[in-house]
Design a protein that fits this description.
By secondary structure, the chain is α/β, with parallel strands linked by helices. It has eleven helices and eight strands. Strands 1-8-7-6-5-4-3-2 form an eight-stranded parallel beta sheet. It binds zinc ion.
Length: about 300
């Protein structure tokens, strides 16, 4: 991969929608995915296979998977927390990559997935193995890697110990998630570099929420430190049902604008993202948090 290209993992269909109070129809979810692909997205977090009582918005995961548009060059990620979720995702036959989630603190791990932090690492290793056995790939995201809504500061050593253990399972990448939007660019720079130093060729993905306005600065710091995949949600939708006060992901259109203007290639068309932001806003009945879609087009189209 060229050093000036950055991959966007579109997470609006999962992280973006999961905290929405009104249930979005399966049709609309499939349309959102199709629009993201039309704009150029090639890896999409399509849904999560979790208990529908815990996350009602994802209750149609199997149906969304069955209706995913067929594109040979698109990788569909299904988020799973345990063996049962992994079995469901694999049984659809449409999920290319299992995304496991581990949590850096025990209190949040219990709230999010009823496991200890160590238990979540064991579960993720098993999920990655199941993906590999099924001929798919597995990746993992460390939630609350930059701070926990319950326990506060998270030690970098804790995150690095988890990374080391997870790396043994052979994930195709390791993600660092700022689930509650408390990270700052210096912290991001340090942690991304330390993870890269520790597990070498395994790529680092980052996941930022813009809860305190540091989202784009954190993306920039992560890219400068060598992260090559950025999670982002069209419109800046998102939140975590189990993290008090969590708000939207960095907006895909804002990330694409910043990176492309700075000379990076994302392969994603900004105009189509802005259109999709407006379509989603109409669907949700509100203006979405993303900034670029609310601003005049720059530079002007000739
Ligand atoms: Zn998130």
């Amino acid at each position: 991969m060229y050093t000036n290209s950055v991959e966007i993992l579109e997470v609006a269909p999962r992280d973006g929608l999961q905290n929405e109070k009104t249930v979005i129809a399966t049709d609309e979810k499939v349309s959102l995915i199709a629009r993201a692909i039309a704009a150029g997205a090639r890896r999409i977090e399509a849904t999560s296979f979790v208990n529908p009582r815990a996350v009602p918005q994802m209750a149609d995961a199997d149906e969304v998977a069955a209706r995913l548009p067929h594109h040979d060059d698109v990788t569909y990620v299904g988020l799973v927390m345990n063996q049962r979720g992994a079995e469901r995702a694999l049984a659809t036959g449409r999920i290319d990559q299992l995304g496991a989630v581990v949590v850096a603190t025990d209190t949040f791990a219990m709230a999010n997935q009823n496991q200890t932090s160590d238990g979540s690492v064991d579960a993720a290793r098993a999920i990655i193995a199941m993906a590999q056995t099924a001929g798919k790939t597995g990746q993992v995201t460390i939630a609350a890697a930059f701070g926990c809504p319950f326990e506060g500061e998270v030690a970098e050593e804790r995150v690095l110990a988890m990374v080391e253990s997870l790396a043994e399972a052979g994930p195709v990448e390791i993600g660092l998630a700022d689930t509650i939007g408390v990270a700052n660019p210096a912290h991001v720079d340090r942690l991304v570099r330390r993870v890269r130093d520790l597990v070498g060729p395994i790529p680092v993905r980052v996941h930022f929420h813009n809860t305190r306005g540091t989202g784009l600065a954190n993306v920039w710091a992560a890219v400068a430190a060598g992260a090559r995949t950025i999670d982002a949600a069209i419109g800046g939708l998102g939140g975590c049902p189990f993290a008090p006060g969590a708000s939207g992901n960095v907006a895909t259109e804002d990330v694409v604008y910043m990176l492309e203007r700075a000379g990076f290639q994302t392969g994603i068309d900004l105009g189509q993202l802005v259109e999709t932001n407006h379509w989603l806003g109409t669907l949700m009945g509100r203006t979405l948090p993303g900034m670029v879609a609310r601003a005049p087009v720059f530079p002007k189209l000739s």
